[in-house]
Amino acid sequence: MGLFGLGKKPGLGIDIGTDAIKAVEIVPQGDTYEIIRVAESQLPKNLITDDEITDIDKVARALKQTKKALGTRALDVVSSVSGSQAISKQIAVALELDDDAISEKIETEAEALIPYPLAEVRYDFESLGEHPTMPGQQRVLVTATRTMSVDSRVQALEEAGFKVRIMDVDNQAILRACDHVMPHLYPDLYDNKLPLLVLDISGAAVQMIVIGGGEVMYTRYQSGGLGALLGALDNEGELDHGELFAKLRADETEEFSPLVLQDFLGNLWSQISRGMQIYRSNATKKDFAGIVLVNSGAMLPMIANMLGEQVEYPVISLNPFEHFPLPSKYQHLEAHGPRFVEALGLALRSFTEWHT
């Protein structure tokens, strides 16, 4: 894979989700960035099951559609695997160690760090700076995932004509986007000393990500997501889920069974509150500055309203397009910004170094 993206080269991030592919292309602009292209392509059902691609050729065809819709000449891409497939651990190493020495240390201690044979995994690492309590040491974040999880996505992207420079992890991409956008949109919330609870609610799962100090402090994955709601509303399988989602997004719920909506919201809160309890059982800071909603769930008013009734701190839906104005031809996607948070974080990853 190797170094890529430094200088004026555009950064292209592609998020291969369970229901759609989202792409964001950015270029440096002064001390920030400018979005120049975005695209979204829907995926047929069951092409990605349990975060694994079941039909690489069909995903590759969808990626080709995304590439055509973008109209970009950029081929270098950053994509991601699900954090449910990745293992991240922090280790302390001497400050003077360079990348080669850190890599050698990781491989020497791989058995203790990674619960798979090193030949079956791909790993990356980054320094988090000097250790706050261990003088002369630095903290290093090591992230590893099974090779097959990476290879299927790389193969699909390469069949579509892209060159994969790095496979990130979804929660790290979401953290990166939050760290870039929130100081501009919600500075008081971002500057709070308490961590933020990010809820990534997709069609297939609910991911809880606690972030603070530029780090992912906790993650928890549970299957379910909006697919359970759409399936319950379409119990005979004859309705268009896109149309159902559009009505929910517009808060036009009069025609839907209140019991179905209440059951979904109740189950969702049970998942979230259980995850919060598990986090708090081991955390020193047990409360949150606020809840940040991303992905498709952030576009449904009833979810934000439900959470606002359950907690005493702010609940926001993060739309990065409120900070990064879209080119005029993409204005129709402005309200879809919460779905592009991860893709933006991947594009931003293009402008930092990584390791093979």
Descriptors:
Dna Ligase, domain 1; SHS2_FtsA; 35% helix; 29% strand; Nucleotidyltransferase, domain 5; 356 residues; three-stranded antiparallel β-sheet; 15 strands; globular; ATPase_NBD; SHS2 domain-containing protein; five-stranded mixed β-sheet; disordered N terminus; alpha+beta; FtsA/MreB
Q: What is shown here, in short?
A:
The chain is of the alpha+beta class and 356 residues long. Helix content is 35%, strand content 29%. The chain is built from eleven helices and 15 strands.
Could you characterize the architecture of this molecule?
With 356 residues, the protein is of the alpha+beta class. The protein has 2 domains: 11-84 and 147-231 and 257-349, ATPase, nucleotide binding domain (Nucleotidyltransferase, domain 5, 2-Layer Sandwich), CATH 3.30.420; 86-146, Dna Ligase, domain 1, CATH 3.30.1490. Helix content is 35%, strand content 29%. The protein has 11 helices and 15 strands. The chain has helices at residues 56-70, 99-108, 110-113, 147-159, 170-185, 187-191, 226-233, 241-249, 258-282, 301-310, 341-349, and strands at residues 11-16, 20-29, 32-42, 48-49, 52-53, 76-81, 86-94, 121-130, 137-146, 163-169, 196-201, 205-212, 215-223, 290-294, 315-317. It has a 5-stranded mixed β-sheet, with helices on both faces. Strands 1-2-3 form a 3-stranded antiparallel β-sheet, with helices on both faces. α5 packs across α11 (341-349). The longest helix is centred in the C-terminal third of the chain and has 25 residues, at 258-282.
